[in-house]
User: Which sequence fits this backbone?
């Protein structure tokens, strides 16, 4: 299994709570749509405008497929418009 963690800093000029809510629903909604995506959980720290995705994928190949899956790429386009920075960490569990 691969743990995929992504942390974003939301832009100052957007409604952070609205953006975080949309991103949470859309990313967590990919479970059952993207093959190999076992779980996805999004948390939001409103004090720091920080959003964190913690997800679990079956294999490194599933992670690679997730990253290019059309449903995921739709969410990525929305996320890119709402964030000013991104950090990612992937590791085997």
Assistant:
């Amino acid at each position: 299994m691969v743990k995929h963690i992504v942390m974003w800093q939301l832009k100052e000029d957007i409604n952070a709570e609205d953006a975080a809510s949309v991103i949470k629903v859309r990313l967590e909604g990919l479970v059952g749509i993207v093959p190999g995506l076992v779980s996805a959980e999004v948390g939001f720290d409103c004090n720091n405008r920080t959003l964190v995705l913690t997800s679990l994928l079956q294999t490194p190949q599933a992670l690679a497929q997730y990253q290019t899956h059309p449903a995921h790429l739709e969410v990525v386009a929305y996320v890119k418009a709402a964030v000013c920075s991104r950090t990612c960490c992937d590791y085997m569990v």
Q: What stands out?
A: Residues 16-28 form the longest helix (13 residues). The chain has one domain: 2-92.
